[in-house]
Design goal:
- This protein has about 260 residues and is an alpha/beta fold.
- The chain has ten helices and ten strands.
- It starts with a strand and ends in a 9-residue tail after the last helix.
Length: about 260
């Protein structure tokens, strides 16, 4: 079977590369299956402490391959989303390690929102994000309706979704949609440096941070304070907290092991 998702390990960092460069890494059902399988494998391996998702060739991901028979006019797109995109997003958001999107080129439609589902997005200067759905008579999916307003505000989200205009990576970083935009030649090194840094940090606490920030969006201040107290109570006796405090007091580098 053709490898539509390439897997590469560097220390505790696992890189998953979408591998349909001739089709700008657009999604087929088989690529969905292989990506979820690769994510599940990374989640199950204790040695993996950070995951990077990127694309082969000049694009990150152009979204759904419209040549896929399952996406043809007249097909049930709701069923396609329920079968492929919904479990992909849920898998990403529940990963037990941090996930970085290394956007090396165009991220369009579901590909753009796939990147935004990751914990941190770093993009090459030549990359761009396109909410291409309205151009073909659809609405944003792959979590776009939920993600965009929270990242850039209602007005910007609405304009991006209605126009389908190309948003350069540099502008995406300026408006807070992504974490960082770097020169193309620096993308790999920048991503690997951040991934190695996150892999050396207390993994359980990083994942709990993701969960807490998401949960807090649905709480008032009192509810957020109570949620924070519950989580801190849980981690206050953890190995990594004890190690972090001991390393701080001893002025040494901590060795975090919780996963």
């Amino acid at each position: 079977m053709e490898s539509l998702v390439l897997v590469e390990d560097a220390g505790a960092v696992r890189t998953l590369t979408l591998n349909r460069p001739a089709a700008m890494n657009s999604f087929t059902s088989e690529m969905h299956a292989q990506l979820r399988e690769a994510l599940d494998a990374a989640a199950a391996e204790a040695a993996v402490r950070c995951v990077v998702i990127t694309g082969a060739g000049r694009g990150f991901c152009a979204g759904q391959d419209l040549g896929d028979p399952q996406a043809a006019p007249g097909q049930d797109l709701g069923a396609l989303i329920a079968r492929n995109y919904l479990p992909l997003v849920e898998t990403l958001r529940a990963m037990p390690v941090p996930v970085i999107a290394a956007v090396n080129g165009v991220a369009a439609g579901a590909g753009a929102n796939l990147a935004l589902c990751c914990d941190v997005v770093i993009a090459a200067k030549s990359a761009s994000f396109i909410q291409a759905f309205a151009r073909i008579g659809l609405i944003p999916d792959t979590g776009g309706t939920w993600l965009l307003p929270r990242l850039v505000g209602h007005a910007r989200a609405m304009a991006l979704a209605l126009t389908g205009d190309r948003l350069p990576a540099e502008q995406a970083a300026q408006m807070g949609m992504i974490w960082q935009c770097v020169e193309d030649a620096e993308l790999r090194d920048a991503v690997q440096a951040l991934a190695a840094r996150l892999a050396a940090m207390p993994t359980k606490a990083l994942v709990a941070t993701r969960r807490a920030l998401n949960e807090a969006q649905h709480l008032d201040m009192r509810g957020a304070l109570e949620m924070e107290a519950r989580v801190q109570a849980q981690f206050g006796s953890s190995h990594d907290y004890l190690e972090g405090v001991d390393a701080f007091r001893g002025k040494r580098a901590p060795q975090f092991t919780d996963r």
